[in-house]
Amino acid sequence: MDANEFLFRNTTPSVKFPVIGSSVIGMITKVPRVIEETDPATREVKRWQNGQPKMQVVIDLQTELRENAEDDGMRTLWAKGMMQQAIREAVMRAGAKLLAVGGILQVTYSADKPTNLQPLKLYTAQYWPPQQGTEVPATPWETQAPPQQAMATPWQQAEARAAEVPRYPVAPAAAAPNSSFLNIAVLSKIGSPAPFPDRPA
Hints:
Elements lengths: L2 H5 L15 E6 L4 E4 L18 E8 L11 E6 L2 H12 L10 E10 L6 E9 L11 H5 L9 H11 L14 H12 L11
Antiparallel strand pairs: 1-3, 1-5, 2-3, 3-4, 5-6
């Protein structure tokens, strides 16, 4: 653990799976790391019956989750127990060899397995490796909704409107005056019953 990781290790919210069906999806932003699993109450390292410490994988994800205006969507996924198996199987199904920075990972709390003690949480996972010059399956972010186009700025809108019409429009040629129209127009103004004489040819 380096100095930055030590200083900021508790600032990123952890992913929680409170009920069956809870899910998270995000892009991996750092190389996953392995640390010892500790008891939340006593902070002591958990150990197997042979005395070896239990290990967990820490995965940093950039998600679309937002709880407030200051939330940047970063989440820490603590993969342990059956979750590790689900992620390992997902990586293998994707044809990858490891979790890589830039890959997309989705983990879902899928079911409970009864045991003599408390139920064992079961998980499913999907993994999309980062694109490296080859076509990869579309991620849920790409299939759920098309990307929104950015709104044009007022300057761009004005330029677009200006491009639709000539910058210097040419005035149309004046049509030859119509004598009968002139007669009617003048009569309506002066109220004279006499016809306005036509201009001699």
